Amino acid sequence: MKAFKPMFVSGLVAAVLGVATMAAHAEDLLDKVKQTGVLTIACEGTYPPFDSRNTDGQLVGFDVDVAKAVAARLGVKPQFITTEWSGILAGLQAGKFDVIINQVGITPQRQAVLDFSQPYTYSSAQLIQREGDKTDYAATGALQGKRVGVTLGTNYADLAKKLPGVEVKTYPGAPEKLSDLASGRVDVSMDDRVMLPYLIKNAHLPLKAGATVKGGDTEMGIPFRKGNPKFAKAIDDAISSMKQDGTLKKISMQWFGTDITVPAAH
């Protein structure tokens, strides 16, 4: 019996711990959020017009307003946590916050490790060109032989490199790229459709929106950790109600002057 007892006790302890662990994992994120009364939301805080700080230090932007509306529909308060983009997805997986609301594209790679809400914004690749440029870049072959400016490390840089006969020039950011576009060093810039109104307005240069580019469509959703079916339904229900009652469109029109919560027409 003495030889058996330690094994029995250790087995019992392991079983109890296993049940406790399963119970901990079984708790849906919705239960935790409801119990605390708080939804913790990660965003960069340096990504205008989606999320940035105003002169009073307050977080403002499209995604900030969306996050507040989602939290309200869940019946809880939003608590924002700002973090750099480079670590934001890992932070979510590690449980540092409940969700990310920061224009996270829904991709198969991310869906393999995280769950997503239904899309709440839709983006696509779109060109910016000089105001005096009358070229219809939507026409087949119109971009061949042209110099296209893109921001280094973006999906649009990868997309531009796949276009036949295009010379791709990369830039560290939008200001340098749009300056070269205005001065004629590149023929067009390729950017996020959602960002175009903001980029053109703040560049203070003679630029205008051009054609959308096929193959650059992206759906943005709210990611959260896997294994939370009740939370997933609650988030989707919140977004659905915001679409139905016009809340999402109203927020979009306020920040962009256009509705980015519906797919772009090609």
Outline of this structure?
With 266 residues, this protein is an alpha/beta fold.
Globular, elongated, flat, extended or rod-shaped: what is the shape? elongated
Helix content: 25-40%
Write down the domain tally. Answer: 2
CATH topology of the largest domain: D-Maltodextrin-Binding Protein, domain 2
Q: What is the number of helical segments per DSSP (H or I, 4+ residues)? A: 10
Give the end-to-end Cα distance, rounded to a whole number of Å: 77 Å
Roughly what fraction of the amino acids lie in strands? 25-35%
CATH superfamily of the largest domain: Periplasmic binding protein-like II
CATH class of the largest domain: Alpha Beta
Low-confidence stretches: 1-24
Output mean pLDDT.
Answer: 89
Task: Examine the secondary-structure arrangement and name the CATH architecture of the largest domain.
Answer: 3-Layer(aba) Sandwich
In which order are the strands of the major sheet placed?
7-13-9-12-10-11
Q: Report on the biggest sheet.
A: 6 strands, mixed
The radius of gyration computed from the alpha-carbon positions, rounded to a whole number of angstroms, is 23 Å
The number of distinct β-strands equals: 14
Structure description:
With 266 residues, this protein is α/β, with parallel strands linked by helices. The chain has two domains: 29-120 and 222-256, D-Maltodextrin-Binding Protein, domain 2, CATH 3.40.190; 124-217, D-Maltodextrin-Binding Protein, domain 2 (3-Layer(aba) Sandwich), CATH 3.40.190.10. It is 39% helix and 26% strand. It has ten helices and 14 strands. It has helices at 5-26, 29-36, 62-74, 88-93, 108-111, 155-161, 174-183, 196-203, 229-244, 247-256, and strands at 38-43, 46-47, 51-53, 59-60, 77-82, 99-100, 104-105, 114-116, 121-130, 147-151, 167-171, 188-192, 207-221, 223-225. The strands form four sheets. The chain has a six-stranded mixed β-sheet, sandwiched between helices. Strands 5-1-6 form a three-stranded parallel β-sheet. The longest helix is centred in the first third of the chain and has 22 residues, at 5-26. The N and C termini lie far apart (77 Å). Residues 1-24 have low confidence and may be disordered.
